[in-house]
Each structure stands twice: as structure tokens, then as C-alpha cells.
């Protein structure tokens, strides 16, 4: 093979110096200059022409043949991954076994317990909670906490109606329980548990640390506020004697809670303005009865007006207390006049209106007027 080169400062017969290989502008299109068998390139470093025989197949300046990579055949999607794969490795002789699909148990709405997560949005970063949610259909594991609120049947029916209509959020609102002995004591979510039990659905629950009934009352007061009747039931069921006697008094005479509390703590010195007992003490379970005997005596007198529809209202009870305290007309005379003229006693708006109504009844057929208060 013959190469012709033109280099600066080189004489015939002079030994060739080893110099770095010149860079070629390979992006230049080869031009034919008379000799069809030679390709001419330009040495970019020294701007010298370089003639190279086209037939040369080797040598320092021989161009490398462009290797054409054979196209790989596309693998079928169903073809197993070959050995030496980064993810899987098995011998060609290994048998590929297709596992059957396992049917997951469904919820009441037919949804499986485990579903693939939706595609994560890059707009959110979700931190996994260390609190685990469990699920079961073993309803016997659970027990109600003594003193917790009584179940509201209308509330249970509303939740069941929503679920049957397609709105089932039980899995997103787990029941909170605490491990106590061999039972899971329900701290919060007794209505959700009752709904799941009645519908034969799964109970989704979280295990929390053990809490007292007062802690539960505080938690519920920040969400769905407890009513006074809830506090009475709570402490009475735990054996608090004052709350048990309050509950018994209320049920025996049919008075509302406000009147019952006032009578048992103030006697006849009650007002028509509602409960005067310390709210925090009542909710904390430190309520005390101080005038039960006086309250029972007064309740027996009010009971004499039982045929009147408004006899157990706060306004009417307050009117009777005012008559007793004024001592201007014996309350037994008022009861006697009422029984003789029952049709004259009518529902009124306040205790002063009842005093006027009773005074008219007492003075019926009397020449000398008697003032009750």
C-alpha cells in the first residue's frame, strides 16, 4: 500500500518523526479530483492536503469501516425474559408457571380490600403514617366502654341508608379501640361499628392507647358535643351515686333535666333561666346533690297537677315554687281550686303567666281576692 504525504520540513530519506495523528474534517464531503481512485481530506491542524488510496484497507490513516449493527428482533410481550436479565434469571429448562388470580374478599360495596394505588401525582408528597389500620369481621372481638353514650338509632339508620345508596366511608373513618384484656374496647366510633355489624360489613379499626371515659368525653366535646343526658348516663353507668340519683329523679317525675338539676341542688329557690349548676363540674363528674328531700317534696306537689299537660315544664314548676316561697296562699288550696276547675288551667309562656292563671282559678267564686305572689 502506498501513501503520499506532504509534511513541512521533511527531506527524502529522512526518518519520519512520530507526531500526533492529524484531525480530519470528516464532516467534509469527499471530492473527486481527476483520480477516481483517491479520496482527498484536509488536515485541520496544518491545512495540508492528504491523498489516500481508496483501495487501502489498513494503515495509520486508513479509515475504519462503518460497522452496521444487526437489527434486534423484537421480543413478543408474552415471551419470557431471557437469562442474565437484571430483574429475573432462570435457566432455559425451567418451567414457567402461571399463578391463578386470587380473589380478594370484598367489602359491602363489592370493593376488594386491597386495590392498586392510583398513579401518584407529582404535585403531592405523601408521608406514610406509622398508625396502622386493621380490618376484621370478627365482631366478638369488640366491646363497648362502660359509660359511653347510648346508641342513637336514627343516626345508625342514616348511615345505613347512605351506604345502601352508594356512599360508604366506613373504611375512611376507622373505629378507635384500645386493647383491654381479651377485648378491643371501643373508644370512638360505636355507631360505625354498629352499622358494620348490622350490615355484615368489615370493621376498620385503629388500636390506640387506653383512655378513660372522661378523656372520651373531652374528645367528643371537640367533635360532636355531648348533651347533659350523655354525661348523666356516662357517670351513672360507672356507679356515681349523685348521677344515678339524678337520673332516677328525672325518670320518676318526668321533669326535664334542667328542672331536675335545679330542684336537687337549690330546692324551691329555682329560677326559670335554666341549669345553674357549674357546667365544668357537671361534665367532669363532680356534680353533687344537696337538696334531694326538698326536691322530692316539691315534686310530689307538682305531681298533683299531672292531668295538666304543662305541669312538668320549667315555667310551671317555677310558679309553684314561687307560691310556696311567698306563703300568701297555701299551695294545698291552689291544688284544691285546680281540681275543681281543671279546664281553666291553660298552657302559658312563662312562670308569671302561670301565676296569673292560677290566681284566677283560686279566686273563682270568691268575693275577696287572694294574691298568690
Short description:
With 373 residues, the protein is α/β, with parallel strands linked by helices. It contains eleven helices and eight strands.
How is this fold's topology laid out?
Layout: E1 31-33, E2 35-42, E3 49-53, E4 134-136, E5 142-144, H1 153-164, E6 175-180, E7 183-188, H2 190-199, E8 203-208, H3 213-221, H4 228-237, H5 241-253, H6 257-266, H7 279-284, H8 292-302, H9 314-326, H10 331-340, H11 351-362
Helix pairs in contact: 1-2, 4-5, 6-8, 9-11, 10-11
Can you give a write-up of this model?
Strand 1 (31-33) and strand 2 form a beta hairpin. The protein has a 5-stranded mixed beta sheet. The chain has a 3-stranded antiparallel beta sheet with strand order 1-2-3, with no helix packed on it. Helix 1 (153-164) crosses helix 2 (190-199), helix 6 crosses helix 8 (292-302) and helix 10 (331-340) crosses helix 11 (351-362). Among the domains are: 23-57, no CATH class; 134-221, Conserved hypothetical protein from pyrococcus furiosus pfu- 392566-001, ParB domain (Alpha-Beta Complex), CATH 3.90.1530.10; 228-362, no CATH class. The protein is α/β, with parallel strands linked by helices. It has helices at residues 153-164, 190-199, 213-221, 228-237, 241-253, 257-266, 279-284, 292-302, 314-326, 331-340, 351-362; strands spanning 31-33, 35-42, 49-53, 134-136, 142-144, 175-180, 183-188, 203-208. The chain is built from 11 helices and 8 strands.
